[in-house]
Amino acid sequence: xxxxxxxxxxxxxxxxxxxxxxxxxxxxxxxxxxxxxxxxxxxxxxxxxxxxxxxxxxxxxxxxxxxxxxxxxxxxxxxxxxxxxxxxxxxxxxxxxxxxxxxxxxxxxxxxxxxxxxxxxxxxxxxxxxxxxxxxxxxxxxxxxxxxxxxxxxxxxxxxxxxxxxxxxxxxxxxxxxxxxxxxxxxxxxxxxxxxxxxxxxxxxxxxxxxxxxxxxxxxxxxxxxxxxxxxxxxxxxxxxxxxxxxxxxxxxxxxxxxxxxxxxxxxxxxxxxxxxxxxxxxxxxxxxxxxxxxxxxxxxxxxxxxxxxxxxxxxxxxxxxxxxxxxxxxxxxxxxxxxxxxxxxxxxxxxxxxxxxxxxxxxxxxxxxxxxxxxxxxxxxxxxxxxxxxxxxxxxxxxxxxxxxxxxxxxxxxxxxxxxxxxxxxxxxxxxxxxxxxxxxxxxxxxxxxxx
Length: 453
Ligand code: ATP
Ligand code: MG
Known about the structure:
The chain is globular and about 90 Å long. By secondary structure, the protein is α+β, with helices and mostly antiparallel strands. The chain has 22 helices and 13 strands. It is about 50% helix and about 10% strand. A 7-stranded mixed β-sheet has the order 3-4-5-2-1-8-9. It has 4 domains: about 5-140, Beta Polymerase, domain 2 (2-Layer Sandwich); about 145-225, Hydrophobic Seed Protein; about 235-390, no CATH class; about 395-450. The protein binds adenosine-5'-triphosphate (ATP) and magnesium ion. Magnesium ion (MG) binds near residues 27 and 40.
């Protein structure tokens, strides 16, 4: 059932002919058994890296010394790059991050024993078939993430594996085997030693997974080591007619209810985080949250800064969190005004439609229908505005800051205010977006007003 691409077969055969044993391993074998395409093929080989380099270069292939300390070199064969790693077993991980030493071993079975989960600890080559000493194939059939060897020890060696387990669960929809999950909980404190970049990488893969919602719910006690903000959401009963789930389960459904791209998924994760902090009950026992979107913003900012996202990405996610509950009727004026507030970022507005739709999907089905329809209408209106090339940013106005200054508006913040006022007037249809009309509007309504003050 497994088929290796030509380039990979050629590389295995070059190493084989030179007297070395080479296998496709890890993610490729897992994904092949799952019938999924795999982007990179890792190769485990009995040769030391210097021998791999010599043999491959003699066959006319280019190589890069990408990780020779751990026995890895990259070989370019045809159009593909392959990481070829010497069979190895990892020594102690004193810092919970890197093996302090690696020792090279002689068999593929020993190499597979250092790998994290049974589904990732299989090897394959065309003439010998599958090597699966830990029952990875059976675990694929069961749909289970199971640590190779003693779970406690494996997570203590490298805490990143805790997040990898949650991530594979989100990608594959698999349950984490109970002893494995126990080992994750016992060692989750060690995640503080893992760099923010690596944590973020795994969390993002988790969030983009087709089963992200289930993984958030199922792994919340492990994930709380890197996202302690989830704890207050778990079990927080909203007590409103619109919600039948607690804040965490609602959030999980919203994450699954938006398409899998980072902007929408991160905004979905954060959108209601402020709720527990601004909840109150009225005399009828109904729950209310005043301004929860605004309360979610600083919480989300704190998390994203900790996870070292770029400021540009943080700003866009926060705009979605801040605006997710704003009432925007699906008419061109309202949509353009919201677009102006989003800095004319049409992609961000489309993400807002996705978030509003996902948010509605995560609510009680009794109320979600009209809200889903409204999000669809908003998106259609947006598309019409884009197609008609209408003005919704200060930049698209027929006059600019310099023109406004020439007409007599004082230099400084007044310029920006005048342009914003002009844009509102254009959106409201009070004035056409033509230079003479706008100039007259400035003289009459901007400068005229300040004279009359
Ligand atoms: P994908 O590439 O789809 O994210 P993958 O399983 O290929 O998933 P990689 O990070 O590419 O993940 O790692 C390749 C292989 O190396 C894994 O399948 C696993 O066997 C092993 N591996 C990776 N990271 C670890 C780790 N932290 N501990 C133990 N083994 C690991
Ligand atoms: Mg991989």
